[in-house]
Input
Amino acid sequence: MAANRLLSDEELKEMGRRRLDALTEAIDAGDPARAKDHAERMYREFLAMHDALIGWLTGTLSFIGERYGDAALLEAEKEGCRTWLEPLTKLFAEADVRHRAVMLGKILRGHFMPMTVEEDDEKLTFTMEPCGSGGRLIQAGKYELPGGFLKVANAQPMTCGRPDFPVYCTHHYLEELIPREMVGYPLFTCEPADALGEGLCHIYLYKDPKAAPLRWTK
Output
């Protein structure tokens, strides 16, 4: 063994294991304290990766918008969003409304934040408290720092008709536009908070998707 070695063979093996495997092993061994520790560690590790990717994406969009303007930003973002929205739209179009609600819940839980879900005769309303992506970027001051992320200055469809709109949040427009182009209606709609980062944004899944309001269509 090298004299200046930092980690033992056992530590290296443990470092290379999936956290999920360690968690399920602890459950199978009847060790709830160790299982809870692994669950908490897995949450922190996944959230750190989630936040790093959100930052990477928002930084890239900021660069495109600042360097090449709003039209190029929208074109680039539309192409990026197609990679996940097109297959998701096909899945939603083939599913009944209950299955669509379950799928949307799974998607939104991927932001690792607490969420409430309410149902009325017309729709289901999903509310993260706080928003796990765009809202947390705003709360962390990522748009206000020197050299911070871009706010799209001009009110337009991709800014939900608002000026000085955080660039990350512009994807809500495309979440409605791309499915509408494919199947004639959005999968779900987002109602941004009046004060982004302070109030709560709401995501609506209509039981009759064709009843979803058509917004920001130009």
About this structure: The mean pLDDT is 95.
